[in-house]
Amino acid sequence: MADIETIKRLKNAAYDMRVDLLKLCFQAGILHIGGDLSITDIVTCLYQYVMKFDPQNPKWEGRDRFILSKGHCAGAVYMAQAHEGYFDKQELLNTYLRLDSRFGMHPCADMLDSFEISTGSLGHGLSIAIGMALAAKMDRKKHHVFVIMGDGESQEGSVWEGLMAGPQFKLGNLVVIVDRNGLSMDGPTEKYMMLEPYADKFKAFNWNLVEIDGNDMKQLCDAFDHLPPVDSNVPTLILAHTVKGEGIDFMENNPLWHAGCLKDEETLQQCIHQIEDAREKELGGAQQ
Question: In what order do the strands lie in the sheet with 208-213?
Fold first, then answer.
């Protein structure tokens, strides 16, 4: 179970990652920064607290598997992996989106061993994860398969087929985290394809539903600490309510920042100042 010091460490790490994502957005010229910031706490918790992996041996057989189904938010996962030593953070900052870079707007498994699959076309990640989890169950493997999925993405019909299949195959090794920030690229999800009552749908599909604030590190740790055993028969879905653009006032809950650019150094520094003010207020200072 996560103690107070562990939660504080993870919160600091998430602040660090937000600062780095802002720098990446500025240097690259564009980033899916709204969604990257909404999943920063989730990804930090997964990579620095929850998942088993070896950055020096990315295909280690005993690793937990991770799929970023909302592949446009690769920036957050790239940064989390850089922080864990999969590759040099400076390479990411200097080469993201450039010709022949390993770091595209969506992750490419052919370029990076740290990714299980290439993603970007929405609606496929869950179904692929179900196949991986079923194979692991049949082979009596003891690792989890984690998936981060967007709420806008769950307007895809293939997602609901996957949601039926998870409990059908009794995949207790499967953990889906839905980034419920309420916004798709076009605007509010409820305006374009109503999802509510969202939680009730997952319950009706017989998932172990855990509903939390996805930008609250303690709630995230508690949710992962209380996962059913990996060999149980019920898959888990964590419905994580988040804020798109979390931490930057003019980006928060603004669909215009689904993807965007910080065009000048002054704006970048203002954004970093917001993050550091929030860190100071909550934790008492920078830790980078």
Answer: 65-68, 145-150, 174-180, 236-241, 208-213
Tokens of 261: 């650019």
For the chain, the domain total comes to 1
Structural domain of 106: 4-283
- Peptide bond before residue 197 is cis, with ω within 30 degrees of 0: yes
C-alpha count within 13 angstroms, C-beta hemisphere, residue 191: 8
Q: CA-to-CA distance for 39 and 35, rounded, in angstroms? A: 6
262, part of any domain: yes
Q: Is 288 a member of any domain?
A: no
CATH number at residue 131: 3.40.50.970
Residue with tokens 């998936």: 147
> pLDDT, tens digit, for every residue of 47-67?
999 999 999 999 999 999 999
7-40 tens-digit pLDDT: 999 999 999 999 999 999 999 999 999 999 999 9
Q: How many CB atoms lie within 10 A of CB 58?
A: 15
